[in-house]
Specification:
Helix content: over 70%
Distance between the termini: 103 Å
Strand content: 5-15%
Number of domains: 3
Strand order of the largest sheet: 2-4-5-7-6
Radius of gyration: 33 Å
Number of helices: 11
Structural class: alpha+beta
Order of helices and strands: HHHHHHHEHEEHEEHEEH
Number of strands: 7
């Protein structure tokens, strides 16, 4: 009995030891594979970063071309600084891609991007800009064609890099998938009859690795097809969750850049149209108005009423043309420190004198100052206050709240007691020709936003404390040069 008991004990000990050894081996193997997966995740994140850098380079080159095009459109050197800033970002991204290049082919693409980028910069400063300033149309056309060619080459190089980096993402994903499969097979082999444990391990690995990797793979595929609204759930913890968050931030940044580029190109097209036809339209409108006002002196009764309608519509046409011109030249005139409370009170007084406020109560609160071109700043404030008064209606209230931002900038929030802005109208609120008013031209807010952006600021929209809409004009802090002048 003792011998048997001892033998059983030894067997149990051996079996337990073997089980412990089996679990230890399985755990060691699983830990090794998890470390491999972690390394693959790091590599996948780095590859995603390289894809983002290549796409950001393509976006930066488009921005550089946009400033080049603006130089041609405006016919002056006002976009040189913006062009040089964008060029600096292109060079920084090119250097970063050069450091990330892993083989001769990638290094060759980066070298071509650098060479074409340098050529594009020289073309802008040495050929295009002098031609624009000299009004040499032939030279401008030739330089523009050459610029398009260089931009296309740079874009092709950036696309090739992005495709190569995207391919590397696929290889990393395949590696992680292979590691997962091997881990599952060896877990079954090691654990043998421990089916429930093996299933638990498989479920754990599937939930913690396979699904996040699959979501990343699907998101990368959708992004490669041009779907900039791709979003990956960020509920996972660890490197894959961080990679999903970075992927979402990257797609959001790309979407914002794309929207800004579309908006800038839209405004540039409207500006070109306005600059081309404004003179031809304003001349006949002036003649029409002159004759109408001459005839009004002699007209009576129904004819006088008809002539008044003709005059009002002609003036409306002039306002539309002037609004289009404002879009094409939002204002980069001489800046000076403007007391915002004084400017707001002046705008309110002007509207009050012209009887455009009616019995709307308008109050101005707070005080701050900002660097701006006074005529254009007053134009923005006048548009915002006039719109707020119209939305508030008779007996309504409009509040102008001026404040200083922590970064040294300033803001003017214009709130009204009107019905507010419908949710479906918010995305189109600053589009040219979009209006919710029967008699509006749809240019006031578009022009105001263009002026704000020309000053380095922006206009934001939300619900104000009075229950209606609130439009907040945010202006940036003064530059070091401006501070030195103050």
């Amino acid at each position: 009995m003792l011998s048997t008991s001892g033998s059983t004990t030894r067997k149990l000990l051996l079996a337990f030891g073997a089980l412990v050894a089996l679990f230890t081996a399985a755990s060691g193997f699983a830990l090794a594979r998890l470390a491999d997966i972690r390394d693959g995740s790091h590599a996948l994140r780095e590859a995603g970063g390289r894809v983002r850098d290549a796409l950001e380079l393509a976006t930066a080159v488009r921005d550089q071309y946009a400033h080049l095009a603006h130089t041609i459109i405006l016919g002056n050197a006002s976009h040189v600084r913006f062009h040089d800033d964008t060029r600096a970002r292109v060079e920084a991204l090119t250097r970063k891609l050069r450091e990330q290049a892993r083989d001769a082919q990638e290094q060759s693409w980066v070298a071509d991007i650098q060479q074409n980028g340098d050529a594009l910069n020289r073309l802008y400063h040495d050929t295009l800009l002098p031609a624009v300033l000299a009004k040499d149309q032939a030279a401008i056309t030739a330089a523009h064609g050459r610029a398009l060619e260089l931009v296309s080459r740079i874009q092709a190089g950036a696309d090739s890099l992005a495709q190569r980096f995207d391919t590397s993402i696929g290889s990393f994903e395949a590696h992680v998938g292979a590691v997962e499969h091997t881990s599952f097979r060896w877990a079954l082999l090691f654990l043998g009859g421990a089916t429930l444990f093996a299933v638990g391990v498989g479920i754990y690995i599937g939930n913690s690795v396979a699904r996040p990797v699959a979501r990343l793979s699907e998101g990368a595929a959708r992004l490669a097809r041009g779907d900039l609204h791709t979003r990956i759930p960020e509920g996972d913890s660890g490197e894959l969750g961080q990679l999903a968050a970075q992927f979402n931030r990257m797609t959001e940044a790309l979407r914002e850049h794309q929207a800004q580029l579309v908006q800038h190109e839209k405004l540039a097209g409207i500006g070109r149209l306005a600059a081309g036809v404004a003179h031809e339209i304003n001349n006949p409108l002036g003649v029409i108005l002159g004759y109408v006002r001459l005839l009004q002196r002699k007209a009576e009764g129904a004819l006088a009423e008809d002539l008044k309608v003709v005059e009002e519509e002609a003036v409306r046409c002039q306002d539309i043309v002037e609004g289009l011109l404002d879009l094409s030249r939002p204002g980069r005139g001489p800046r000076e420190r403007v007391p915002l409370r004084e400017a707001c009170e002046e705008v309110v007084a002007r509207l009050r004198e012209s009887s455009r406020l009616g019995d709307v109560e308008v109050r101005v609160e707070g005080d701050a100052s900002a660097w701006a071109w006074p005529p254009r700043l007053r134009q923005v404030l006048l548009n915002l206050v006039k719109n707020a008064a119209e939305a508030a209606g008779q007996g309504g209230t409009v509040a102008l709240v001026i404040g200083a931002a922590p970064d040294g900038g300033a803001s003017v929030a214009v709130s009204d007691s009107g019905p507010g802005v419908k949710a479906e109208d918010l995305p189109r609120l600053f589009e040219p020709f979009f209006t919710t008013k029967p008699s509006g031209t749809g240019l006031g807010l578009a022009v105001s936003q263009a002026i704000a952006e020309a000053h380095g600021g922006r206009i934001e929209t939300d619900t104000g404390p009075l229950g209606g809409a609130r439009f907040t004009l945010r202006l940036p802090p003064a530059s070091p040069a401006q501070e030195a002048m103050a």
